[in-house]
Amino acid sequence: MVDGPEPVSRALRAAPPDQLVEAADRAIRSVLGATRTEVFIADYRINGLWPMLEPELSPAALRAHEAAARRCFSSQRPVQIAADDGRCRVFLPLSVWGERLGVLMIELLGAPGPGDEEQAVDIAGALAMAIRAADRETDRYRRARRRERLSMAAELQWELLPGRSVEHPAFHLAGQLEPAYTVAGDHFDWSLDGERLTVTVLNGDGTGLAASLLTVVAVNSMRNARRSGGGLTEQAELASDTLHYQHRGRRYVSTLLLELDLRTGQVRAVDAGSPHVLRLRGGTVEPITLDQQLPLGMFAEARYDLQEFALLPGDRLFVVSDGVWAASPSGGEPYGDRAMARAMRSTRLQPAAEAVGTVMRELHAYHVDTDLRDDAVVVCLDWHGVRGRDAE
């Protein structure tokens, strides 16, 4: 058995981007004396974990790993399962900066020895980073994530996302799009830069590819202003002017822009006819009331004002689009009236990445298993406070 995870890291650096899981398999067998490995990738809806080395794994074999892999993925902690023949399967989360990619399974002849699990965790981290980096060079991992064909609009939307979750000592942040394979205009974006976290959530206008293209222009306009050093008002105004120049007010995008000061918990906001913001504090869900301004692109040279509110350590913010808030299947009560708050309260003990899935699952259940009629976005931000930063 070879000491340390460095041989695995070297093997990953030397491997072609589409052969990372095979390179990791060979190196892990050498380093840890493993008899078998498998990499499970989470799908777009985060409903399943799918094998890469043996994609044709039988349903029975898949079920044998499913519970442990799901427990590892949800808890983001290693899980050990002892087999009847004395072998031990170790399941490890594949995550990069809080972005949950999947699970690595390593099968050993017996229980891990001293230091083996720590090595395995380091190996999983190196593999996750490599897969994340390789994503732009190969379609292999993206194909594993999709359980059906994406619409063209959805292809654009998923390509535009910054990720689905991110962790920091001061905050946790996660988002989810639905319907995952046909989403069009609704979207979210974020960026961490020093002492500032910027989050935008868009409630797209229209359907299909036209809605997705509108969102692409809006998101990239805001990114352009942000990356040039512009604040929230500059981001909103550039996006609004760009959209109006293209569509002369016929198309526009309702958008919420948030900027969290990581030193103080103070939030600046531009509410451009926005998605809805709700705060979960203790067991109480209440809306954050902001003065709505014009959606981006509605009028030429629209100008926007900043508003502010404060977060306390332990606060959880949800931002939802109209497809969540106003969902009313069969003409019933809108999801946002009561059912959504119940779903949000039920997430109190879950991390942000699990909470967005809970709210989405409850939304699907509210539709009584019928297809969502509108795009839906849920973003969840947990503010841990300045004390969280002291752990850095």
What does this protein structure show overall?
- The protein is α+β, with helices and mostly antiparallel strands and 392 residues long.
- It has two domains: 6-144, Beta-Lactamase, CATH 3.30.450; 150-389, PPM-type phosphatase domain (Phosphatase 2c, domain 1), CATH 3.60.40.
- The chain is 35% helix and 26% strand.
- It has helices at 6-14, 20-32, 59-75, 116-134, 140-145, 152-160, 208-227, 232-247, 322-325, 339-345, 352-366, 386-389, and strands spanning 36-42, 49-51, 79-82, 88-96, 99-108, 165-168, 171-178, 187-193, 196-203, 254-261, 266-272, 276-281, 284-287, 307-310, 316-320, 376-383.
- It has a six-stranded antiparallel sheet with strand order 6-7-16-15-12-13. Strands 2-1-5-4-3 form a five-stranded antiparallel sheet, with helices on both faces. Strands 8-9-10-11-14 form a five-stranded antiparallel sheet, with helices on one face.
- The longest helix is centred in the middle third of the chain and has 20 residues, at 208-227.
- It starts with 5 loop residues before the first helix and ends with a helix.
- 44% of the residues are buried.
- The model is unreliable at 388-392 (pLDDT under 50).
Low-confidence stretches: 388-392
Strand order of the largest sheet: 6-7-16-15-12-13
Helix content: 25-40%
**Looking at CATH, which topology of the largest domain would you report?**
Phosphatase 2c, domain 1
Structural class: alpha+beta
> Mind telling me the CATH class of the largest domain?
Alpha Beta
Residues in β-strands, percent: 25-35%
- How is the biggest beta sheet arranged? 6 strands, antiparallel
Radius of gyration: 22 Å
Identify the quaternary structure here: single chain
Q: Specify the CATH architecture of the largest domain.
A: 4-Layer Sandwich
Write the H/E string, N to C.
HHEEHEEEHHHEEEEHHEEEEEEHHHEH
Average per-residue pLDDT, rounded, comes to: 92
